[in-house]
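chain below, 302 aa
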Amino acid sequence: MDLKLLKCFTAVADELHFGRAAQQLDILPSALGRNIRLLEEELGIRLFSRTTRNVTLTRSGHILLGEARPLLASVDDVLERVRTSATGKDRVFRIGAIDSAATGFIPQLIHDFHEIKGDFELILVEDKTAKLLPKLLSGALDIAFVRPPTQQKAGIHFEFLLNERTVVALPVDSPLAKKEQLTIHDLDQVPLILPSPRNRPHSYNLTNSLFLQAGLTPNIVQQAEEKQTIVNLVGAKVGIAIIPRWNSKIAVEGVVFRPLVDSEGKEICELPLAAAWVKGSNDPLRDELIALVTKNLAHYTN
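prediction:
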């Protein structure tokens, strides 16, 4: 039996929703449905009862779920023991990171980690939180630095690190660029570029909530998915954008950045960053990395 099909089955059994399960696995719903059909055909039984509104496990599905979980856990345990037994060049350590973390403190962290641990292969995977978390669960990543979701993900431990500061990206010839810092009231009626709410909910919700709290309505003129694209749009004078401070390291001609502060002049820090890994997993290399982050967090985020 293909273990990939079993993982697809357990994901649907957990969510009882093909769309959410497909998102968790980072595959298309059509591909997930095809994998479930292949498994049902291989076993010669129906595992799910499906209507236009509901997905439920059949009796056979419940039995398979009880057997599949310990089997997959046993496979994961074997893979983990093999990974953690590796030393030096045998070990490939895989870090996932959202774009602001990858632009901000991750380069210095990787440098320092190599200094401490010596010669080993380290792979950095940059992606959105929604794409990194399934990679953790599948074993494709050892650790990820992400925005923690509002609803905790089953099987993943989140270690809160900090709330990232926010800045305003604006054209260099904007009248607002003359100010050393900006408030939300300064941005009233100014054309705004926002990230996609589906793929970057924290940044999208932050902008909207800041305006709502100030009794204002944001003047949204454009949405874009990637922070690099958003900053480029600012450079093209499409609008301005509220972005994580670390993304201000993106150099785009004609764009300047100003701190976003509250009414008391304090910088707004409402974008949470967390380290995430699979619950119950044992990885000494990962633990050393977390210890390094904890020790030097103030320095990395200065």
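The chain has a mean pLDDT of 89. The longest strand covers residues 156-171.
thats it, cya
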